[in-house]
From TrEMBL:
Transmembrane segments: 15-36, 56-82, 103-126, 132-153
Signal peptide range in chain numbering: none
Species this chain originates from: Bosea vestrisii
Taxonomic superkingdom: Bacteria
Alphabetic keyword roster: Membrane, Transmembrane, Transmembrane helix
Keyword Transmembrane helix: yes
Protein name: DUF2254 domain-containing protein
Length: 419
C-alpha cells in the first residue's frame, strides 16, 4: 500500500466522511424526483394526495433526529466504557467500526432526505408526478431505516463490551500479522548480512511513531538514484527528530531526500495496519488491566492468552514467503522474541502470583514451541523459563510452584517433539 492509498484509507475511516456521503446521497435521492417526474403516468400521481408524502416526511424528519441523537450518545458511552474498562488504545478500532458508522450515517442521510423533501414540496417543484416518485423513494428509505435500526439495536448490545472489543483487537492484529507473514520484509529484500549497512543516513523530520512505510516509493527513488535504500526501523517504532531512519548507498539530492522522508509516515499514535506488534501490545494491556487488584479478572487474562496463541500461530505456520517485488530496498523482518515479549512478558509478570494464569501461559508456550516451522521455538523456550522463574518467586504454595515448573519442562519436550 502506497502512502497516498494509506492516507486515503485513514481518511475514509473517519465518521464524518461516511456521514457526509450518506447525507449527500439522501439529499440527491430527494431531488431526483424532479428529474424523474416526466416518466410517471398521470394516473399514478392522482392516487397520491398532496399531504400524504408531506406528513410521512415530517414524521421521518423528527424521528430520525431523535434516533441520531440517541445513537451518538450510545456510541460515546460505548467508547468511554471501552477506554476505561478495556484500554484506551482499543477505542481506535471502535471509532473506525464500519457497522456503527453505516448505522449513524443512514439515520443522518434519512434525516437530510426528509428535510430536503419537505423544503422541495413547499416550493411546489415536484408536481403530482414528482410527489409519486418521492413517495416511492420515501417508502424505500423507511424500509432501509427499519432494517438498519433493527441491526443497530442488536449491535448496540455488544458495542464497547470487553469481549467484543478484545475480539476486534485480535482481528486487527491477526490481519496485520497475516499480511506480514506473506511479506516478511514488506515486499522488499532482507537486510544485507554483516551488520549495519553503510551509506548516507536519512534522518527523521519529526518525533513520533512510524505509522506507515511506503516501500514502493522508496524503491522508485532508489532506482532513480542508481543505488539502494536500507530501512533501519519498522512501523511501530518510536523515532526522534533527526534519528536515522534508513541509509542510502548513493548520495541523494535535496529534493530526493525530502521525498524519501515523506515515505516514512510519522504520527503521534501507533497504527494497526503495518504494525502487528501493536495489536499484541494492546491485548497485553487488556490482560494486565484484568489482572490488576482493582479488577481481579484472571478469566480475561486466560482469554487473551488463547487469542495470542491464535495470532502467533499465523507467524509460526507453514507457507512460502512471497518473492520480493522491490529489489532496491531492504527492510528488516520481525523478531520472534519481540513478538512474544509484547504479550507474554506482561502476562507472566502480572499473573505470576496466580497459578491458573501461570499454567495457561506454559501450555500456550508449549503449543507455540511445537507449532509450524519452529520459528517461534527459541522465543517460546525463553519465555517459558522466565515465566516459570517469575511464578516460583511469586507463588507461596509449593504444589503450585511445582505444577508450573513441570509444565515448563513440557515446553522443552514439546519443542524437541516439534523438531
Amino acid at each position: 500500500m502506497t502512502r497516498w492509498q494509506w492516507l486515503l484509507a485513514q481518511f475514509t475511516r473517519r465518521l464524518w466522511v461516511r456521514s457526509a456521503l450518506f447525507s449527500l446521497l439522501g439529499a440527491l435521492t430527494a431531488l431526483v424526483a424532479i428529474w424523474l417526474k416526466p416518466f410517471i403516468p398521470p394516473a399514478v400521481s392522482v392516487r397520491i394526495g398532496a399531504d400524504a408524502v408531506d406528513n410521512v416526511l415530517g414524521i421521518m424528519a423528527s424521528s430520525m433526529l431523535a434516533v441520531t441523537t440517541f445513537s451518538l450518545g450510545a456510541m460515546v458511552s460505548a467508547y468511554a466504557a471501552a477506554a476505561t474498562g478495556v484500554t484506551p488504545r482499543a477505542t481506535m478500532l471502535l471509532l473506525q467500526d464500519t457497522k456503527a458508522q453505516n448505522a449513524l450515517s443512514t439515520f443522518i442521510g434519512a434525516f437530510l432526505f426528509s428535510i430536503v423533501g419537505i423544503v422541495a414540496l413547499s416550493t411546489g417543484v415536484y408536481g403530482g408526478e414528482g410527489r409519486a416518485v418521492l413517495f416511492i423513494a420515501t417508502i424505500a428509505v423507511i424500509a432501509l431505516v427499519v432494517v438498519t435500526l433493527l441491526r443497530w439495536i442488536e449491535y448496540l448490545s455488544r458495542l464497547g463490551r470487553l469481549g467484543e472489543t478484545t475480539r476486534r483487537v485480535e482481528e486487527a492484529a491477526a490481519e496485520a500479522l497475516r499480511e506480514r507473514r506473506r511479506k516478511p520484509h514488506l515486499g522488499a529484500l532482507p537486510p544485507p548480512a554483516g551488520g549495519l549497512p553503510e551509506g548516507v543516513p536519512i534522518l527523521a523530520s519529526e518525533t513520533g511513531y512510524l505509522q506507515h512505510l511506503d516501500v514502493a516509493a522508496l524503491d522508485k527513488l532508489a532506482q532513480a538514484a542508481g543505488g539502494r535504500i536500507d530501512v533501519l526501523v519498522l512501523p511501530g517504532a518510536f523515532v526522534a527528530r533527526e534519528s536515522i531512519l534508513a541509509r542510502s548507498s548513493r548520495r541523494l539530492e535535496e529534493e530526493q531526500l525530502g521525498a524519501v522522508q515523506k515515505a516514512f509516515s510519522i504520527g503521534d499514535m501507533r497504527s494497526f495496519d503495518q504494525d502487528p506488534r501493536f495489536g499484541l501490545s494492546v491485548l497485553a494491556e487488556i490482560a494486565s488491566r484484568a489482572l490488576s487488584p482493582a479488577v481481579n479478572d484472571p478469566g480475561t487474562a486466560i482469554d487473551v492468552i488463547g487469542r495470542a496463541v491464535r495470532i502467533l500461530s499465523i507467524w509460526a505456520g507453514e507457507g512460502a514467503d512471497e518473492q520480493p517485488v522491490y529489489r532496491h530496498v531492504t527492510v528488516p523482518g520481525l523478531d520472534e522474541h519481540d513478538l512474544l515479549d509484547d504479550v507474554f512478558t506482561p502476562l507472566a509478570r502480572d499473573g505470576a502470583a496466580l497459578v491458573e494464569v501461570g499454567i495457561r501461559v506454559q501450555k500456550a508456550l508449549a503449543i507455540l514451541a511445537a507449532a509450524g516451522s519452529g520459528r517461534l521455538t527459541p522465543a517460546a523456550l525463553r519465555h517459558a523459563e522466565l515465566a516459570a522463574a517469575r511464578a516460583v518467586a511469586a507463588l507461596a504454595f509449593e504444589p503450585d510452584r511445582r505444577a508450573v515448573v513441570e509444565l515448563s519442562a513440557r515446553v522443552r519436550a514439546a519443542a524437541k517433539l516439534g523438531d
